[in-house]
């Protein structure tokens, strides 16, 4: 893993190589080099949005973090100095204590902790790991891990040290007993770092970390997705830096099985094209990949967003394309949630800040248009509560700061 100069994520510009003048923004991308969006703009819109509700935490995916445990959302703010827990049923915000936590360290008064991972262990406790804002420069990756207990409103530092370096832009998932972290970017200072191809698991009961094998693991990357099927973790897509400030987007991945500590490859036959900052959800039998961003294949250095989607069956190791009839317009940094029967795709950056989306039914391979929200944004967080979709935070292409509000969508 070569030490390279990285561009830290800042809105959609983080997907492009600034030294080559690619930081044009989605609105300024060369659409003539991208295939036209195939959208059937007919038929009724379904669902409804609640009036926007105010929050207490500014956040976007670029620097904040959020995690859902089935009842509450743990939100870490955009500037990385504090957080809060939101209960949709009660419509209440409970501030997270600063005392004894990752920000309660001498010197961390400017950046805080940016882009960590937060994973709920149970209804009341959450693991906080990684992020950027440590070291002498206060911009290196953070190795420390903490557990927050919302009942006692207290932090406890995890005594065991992770066997892999801290990082940002990694993925973290909960298996039911362990947290799995993989990939991402390790930062040495604000501009130098290296991408990681390693990962580790943490067991909060035994307070033990274990290194995941690298044998057969996917190549280093960020901007990828990881989903948990109940037995394996599926990693797919992402962005890889290959020197010279030029990123390459990926169309491969791997399947990790914790029980055997082993990786196996994913078929490339019928797979989606290269992309990062796409979405992925697990239906119970398939992984649905949709949208995302990549550089164009003509070598011009322009970027393009995607409108297509694919379903992957890990048992059969087989891909199939999703229908594009009635699909949402091309976009990236959108959200996707699984309701138990359908995938809801909403928001993101494409031809402007998107306030629309679609509902996909994998049984019929059909899309329905969603009623548009009163606001458009990308880099937001979205969770399925059991009866409606909760959207929170994010930002627009006109602003570098995150929102402290959200809304509910009922299909």
What does this structure look like?
The chain has 411 residues and is mainly β. The protein is 0% helix and 39% strand. The strands form 12 sheets. Strands 2-38-37-34-33 form a 5-stranded mixed beta sheet, with no helix packed on it. Strands 3, 4, 39, 40 and 41 form a 5-stranded antiparallel beta sheet that branches. Residues 1-41 have low confidence and may be disordered.
**Count of discrete alpha- or pi-helical segments spanning 4 or more residues:** 0
Q: How are strands sequenced across the largest beta sheet?
A: 2-38-37-34-33
Q: How would you characterize the largest beta sheet?
A: 5 strands, mixed
Total beta-strand segments: 41
Question: What Rg, in angstroms, do the CA atoms define?
Answer: 20 Å
**Oligomeric nature of the chains:** single chain
Unreliable segments of 5+ consecutive residues: 1-41
- Distance between the first and last residues' Cα: 45 Å
Structural class: mainly beta
């Amino acid at each position: 893993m070569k030490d390279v100069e990285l561009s830290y994520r800042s809105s959609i510009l983080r997907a492009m190589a600034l030294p080559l003048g690619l930081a044009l923004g989605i609105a300024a991308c060369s659409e003539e080099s991208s295939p036209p969006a195939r959208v059937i703009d007919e038929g009724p819109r379904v669902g409804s949005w609640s009036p926007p509700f105010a929050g207490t935490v500014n956040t976007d995916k670029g620097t904040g973090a959020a995690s859902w445990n089935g009842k509450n959302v743990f939100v870490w703010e955009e500037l990385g100095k504090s957080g809060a827990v939101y209960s949709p049923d009660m419509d209440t915000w409970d501030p997270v204590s600063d005392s004894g936590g990752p920000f309660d360290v001498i010197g961390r008064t400017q950046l805080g902790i940016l882009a960590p991972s937060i994973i709920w262990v149970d209804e009341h406790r959450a693991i906080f790991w990684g992020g950027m804002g440590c070291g002498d420069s206060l911009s290196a990756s953070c190795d420390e891990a903490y557990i927050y207990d919302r009942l006692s409103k207290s932090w406890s530092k995890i005594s065991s040290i992770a066997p892999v370096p801290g990082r940002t832009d990694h993925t973290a998932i909960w298996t039911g007993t362990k947290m799995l972290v993989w990939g991402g970017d390790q930062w040495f200072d604000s501009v130098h770092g290296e991408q990681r191809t390693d990962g580790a698991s943490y067991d909060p009961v035994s307070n033990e970390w274990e290194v995941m094998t690298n044998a057969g693991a996917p190549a280093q990357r960020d901007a990828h997705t990881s989903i948990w099927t109940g037995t394996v973790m599926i990693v797919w897509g992402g962005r890889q830096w290959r020197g010279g400030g030029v990123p390459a987007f990926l169309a491969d991945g791997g399947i990790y099985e914790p029980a055997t500590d082993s990786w196996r490859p994913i078929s490339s036959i019928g797979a989606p094209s290269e992309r990062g900052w796409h979405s992925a959800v697990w239906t119970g039998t398939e992984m649905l990949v949709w949208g995302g961003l990549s550089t164009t294949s003509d070598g011009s250095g322009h970027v393009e967003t995607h409108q297509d989607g694919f379903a992957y069956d890990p048992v059969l190791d087989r891909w199939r394309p999703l229908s594009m009839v009635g699909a949402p317009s091309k976009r990236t940094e959108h959200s996707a949630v699984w309701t138990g029967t359908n995938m809801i795709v909403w928001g993101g950056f494409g031809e402007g800040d998107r306030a629309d989306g679609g509902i996909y039914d994998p049984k019929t391979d059909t899309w329905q248009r969603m009623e548009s929200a009163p606001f458009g944004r990308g880099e937001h967080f979205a969770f399925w509560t059991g009866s409606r979709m909760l959207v929170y935070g994010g930002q627009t292409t006109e602003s570098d700061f995150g929102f402290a509000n959200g809304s509910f969508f009922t299909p």
